[in-house]
TrEMBL record:
It comes from the Eukaryota. Residues 19-40 are annotated as: Disordered. It comes from Esox lucius. This is PiggyBac transposable element-derived protein domain-containing protein. Residues 535-579 form the PiggyBac transposable element-derived protein 4 C-terminal zinc-finger domain. Pfam families: DDE_Tnp_1_7, zf-Tnp_2.
Amino acid sequence: MSFKQRQLTNEDIVELFFNSDNESEYQSEASDSDSDQELPPNLVAMENPEVTTQILMENGDEDGGRPLVGDVMEVSSSHWKDNSHFTPPVPAIAFDEGQSGVQTSLPSPTEAECFKLFMTEQLVGDIVEETNRYALELQEKTEPGVRGKLVKWVSTSVNEMYTFLVAVLLMGIVRKNSLREYWSSDPMLATPFFATLFSQDRFLVLLRCLHFANNATANLQDPLHKIRRVLSGLTQAFGQVFVPYKDLCIDESLMLWKGRLSFRQYIPSKRHRFGVKFFLLCDVKTGFVQDIIIYTGSTTDIQNYEGLGVSGSVVMTMLAPHLGKGHTLYVDNWYSSPTLFQHLLSNNTGACGTVRSNRKGMPRFSSRKMQKGEVEFLDNGKQLAVKWHDKRDVHVLSTVHTATMSETGRVDHLTGERKVKPDCVQEYNKKMGAVDRVDMVNSFVECARKTTKWYKKIFFHLVDTALFNSHIVHRHLTGEVITYQKYRENLMRELLEEHHIPRRPPTGGRPSGDNPLRLTARHFPAEMPQTDAQGSRTRRHCKVCMSGTRSRKLRKLTKYMCVPCDTPLCVTPCFGEYHTLKHY
């Protein structure tokens, strides 16, 4: 964003010299960027949120139906004073924790039922409808005479779509380098369970045709129209199923995406650096993800609050349903400002967070160099501003903490003294990591894979978030404490028991590779299990007779096999040759 310079008038110069309290208005905000290289407009991190309100939506009818809040009053930087006995204002309404928690009762809160509170059969049915429609569109675009998987397309169903989700979730636990390896016949790589769910071609064609919107009627002005129905359905379910406890936090999460995308973001402090940015509102006590907003630039689904900038507007948009109830919000220095915290306080909502020292409305702390552990408290009657020196200066703003220091429970190994920190710093460190914990937990078993379509990866990312929330709901309803991975495993089993339709065993195909264990361990011949069709006359072709290189190949039937190798073999001499010779 560029700004035009203007020449100062005589009145401006007089105002600048005599009203030094407002000199910060003429200073530019310092940038946190680690790079001096100019980035494309869609990759520029929003380093100065107070002067970039132009990227917000100006059309109030497209704010997602979120309630609006009153006018914003600016906080002056000249009303702060030194005070080490600050006490936060008493909230007008005390928070009622009795209304918090899961709002939906289930007669049998199994893993599958908890998951279906978010990924409902109606939502899956909509996905099935759009997937079938998109598959027909692709078939119509295919030139006559061209052979491919789409030629054999058969309409999918809700049962098959749930089974497809199970296969995708299982791939998050059973990691392989490519999708085709899940159907590999190599004994060292084989995972035969996937072949019992889908053939390779069927899974790949389902993944290709997976779709969430009708291209003919979609709102092309919405950059998220491809995924809007799923995003709206899940976020609405999050708010209906769970009411948060007192403490909330807002932070951003970055989903890796290196492909072309107009709203791809560059955040150098994040692990992935490039990707799609999500704003998440989380309940601190449980970690439940209460709301999600995807940043799309000028069309982001947030309401513009004049005077709060982009960051403050994000906070107010996400907190709108929870204002006036006595909540406490924790945010980092990208969101914090005295004006925002004052506006939240006027709506009976406390706040605490790190803050940039040059934020508009912040007080001027002493410029002397502080020693480690030194602290300075300033307040304006309603807010507490703290400057505390640890490894470097840390600035914190709070409307809910007192100007006191307390022990951390740790001891300085150099001096032997007990470490102390400001109360607001300790509370911030304890309650600000909810969003990062969601990312960390999902990173071990996430089902999102590298795809050529950005909206498919966002869909899988949203499925992971719904799974995370359903795990919290299951623990809340049953009191059963199980690991996240065990919950996912139980969920997959239950979904398969309810929705999986057994497929016919594959016929033909490529022969399986050589089993490297055939020359080791102990092997004994056993009679072949009888099939329903052949009964006691069940036979299979001997492996050595058909593929051996020491003699002429024969199609010889046998009723014996090696069970560990799952290989039919004549008792003599084929059984001995197969388990003793590398080249039989």
